[in-house]
Structures are given as C-alpha cells and as structure tokens.
Known about the structure:
Its main location: membrane. With about 425 residues, the chain is α+β, with helices and mostly antiparallel strands.
Amino acid sequence: xxxxxxxxxxxxxxxxxxxxxxxxxxxxxxxxxxxxxxxxxxxxxxxxxxxxxxxxxxxxxxxxxxxxxxxxxxxxxxxxxxxxxxxxxxxxxxxxxxxxxxxxxxxxxxxxxxxxxxxxxxxxxxxxxxxxxxxxxxxxxxxxxxxxxxxxxxxxxxxxxxxxxxxxxxxxxxxxxxxxxxxxxxxxxxxxxxxxxxxxxxxxxxxxxxxxxxxxxxxxxxxxxxxxxxxxxxxxxxxxxxxxxxxxxxxxxxxxxxxxxxxxxxxxxxxxxxxxxxxxxxxxxxxxxxxxxxxxxxxxxxxxxxxxxxxxxxxxxxxxxxxxxxxxxxxxxxxxxxxxxxxxxxxxxxxxxxxxxxxxxxxxxxxxxxxxxxxxxxxxxxxxxxxxxxxxxxxxxxxxxxxxxxxxxxxxxxxxxxxxx
Length: 421
C-alpha cells in the first residue's frame, strides 16, 4: 500500500474517480409496467378477497371445466370410488338384514327353498364387487339379484340412475376441457412487434396476424383497445381505462378473410388515442394496445378468441413489415420465417396532429429519404468501381503474363527506341 501511494498520489486518484462519475451519469432503469394482457393472450389479473365462494358451486359444471387437469382427474376418480363404496355399504346392509350373512343359511338354502336377496354376497368385499358390477354393467354372472327383496330392486334402480349422472357429468367435463376454444387460438399468431409508418399519406399503426391451420376461422373480426391509466376532471383515477379504436377495413361488416397472413391497419386520425403522440413521446407513454381476434372454428363451430398486446417498447416507429406471400408455380406460398420481420422506411417523427396541420412535413421527409437513397446508391457504385479498379491492378501485379512486354525499334539513323505495346 505504501508503494502504491508513493507511485500514484491519493489526490490524483480521488480526482479521477470524481471525473469518471461526472462523465457517466447514473441512469436508473424505468420500472417495468405490468401488462394487462400477456403476449400469449393470458389476462394478468389476480382475484383476491372473494368472500362469496359459494357462487362457484352454483355453476358447478363451469367450475369443473375451469379446474386444472389434475384436480379434474382426482374428482373424477373419487366420485366413482365414493359411489361404489356407498352402494356397497347399502348392498351389505340389505344382505345383512335379510340374513344372507348368517353361516347357517348356507345349509338351510341347500335343504329348503330359501332364496337370498343377492347370491354369493357374504362379506363386504363381495358387496363391493357387486356394486362395481351393477354400476359399470359388467355382469360376471357369479353374483346376481333375485326377486326376493323389493328393497334390493329399489337400490338397483337408484344406483343405475346415480351412475348415469356421474358418467354424463364427468365425461362432459372432460370433453369440454379437451375442446375448449382457447386450444384453437394457439394456432392464431400475431407479430411480436407492431409498427407505425405512412400508408396512403397517413400515419398508421399496423401489426400482422396469421393462422397456421388450413381450416379457416369463419366470420373473423379484429378489435383494438387502448388501456391506460387516466384521471377524470373530477379527480377520479381509473387504473384500467379501455378505449376502442377503429380498424381500417374496406368491408362494412368489419370481417376479415383470414386465408393468409394479413396486416391489420389502424389510421391515426382525430378519433385515435395516438393522435397527439410523436416518436419521441412514444417511449414515455404508459399505454397498452390490446388486440382481440374473434371468429368461429370451421370444423367444430365453436367461437374462439385470440388475444395479445403491444406496449410502447414493442412499437417500432418508421418500420414496415416485409412481404411474405409469393406466387410459386401457380400456388401462393407463405414464408412464416419472415412473419415478424420489418424494414426501416421513411416516416415523419412528428405526431399525426402536426402532420395534418403541416402536410409539407411528409413531402420534406420523402424528399430527404429520396436524396439519401440516391447518395447511398452513388457511394455504392463508386465503391464498386474502386474495388474493380483495385482488383484489376492487383491481378496485373500478381500475374506476370498480363504485363505488357517492351519492344525495341531500330531507326534508319541507327538509334534504338524502346516502347510498350
């Protein structure tokens, strides 16, 4: 430590550290905003302090369908086991009340015409097996019911009705869980990012949507909502304020024909919440654009819904989606590897309001883009020309066969002259 202090003075070290801290200001990361809708369409919402839990039991079928698979399978198994055990106890009581469990009845049955209620039921295990055979309608033939006990007939009818109800409810729940509408929405995809660019002289918010299956979505429609935190003039804070924004669609019914990936466009006009937002203001905005695609599945006829959202960091200003549909040998081909690819294009950095007030901004932007494009082409051509000249010179130096030989000419006066041909 003494040697270091003697080489580097302490005053110099402190001054250097202070200068580095002044040159590099500390930038605190902006806290990440909670999304209302995740990219996969799930709602980022937690329900707490629900006191009226009994309302879920009033709609028991929907509650069973909404449960997780492991919970559904546990309920499915326990319902059958409990019903088998319950009716096994009832069959055992019927046999016990009739005297079928008494060991002396076996000799009496052989000597007289005494008939049991259920044959071969002499323990709880045999009663449990008979309960399974009755409810599942297996019928092995060893145990059977006789006409001796009217109570046993009543238990048989009751167990058949209960078994049919359990089968209908449980199988219906499993079918609905496997055929839920959000399963079809897994093949409806959205572009990872949205873009803002000029289309037909207007600033537009655009994103791409596609369907991976060949079976189409009938009567598909797209809705866009802006979710932001707002405060009313009265001072009321609305944490999730939803505003619908229109979608540019030439069809009056607002339905889309989703046979191939489409670019959905929203024109930023006076009705749009993005009307006063410029490129510099976009990063500072605390907003979320929710996209909802609804339609009917062609194969099943079930209505499905796919959702996603875009926050300010996922919106690219001055970009455009690359084309992915091409015609190859009479067939339209879609390249999904370029589904979310974008290219940078000329777009004014001002808001749509400023663009409407000063249309010359768009003309100046396009002129600057054209000039920069021409300059880049000139630089590229000049670089290619210089590279070709350098390549030819290097080839002449490396290849001696390309060097022009020297030729000597003899004049009448006897002098010699050297030239290159």
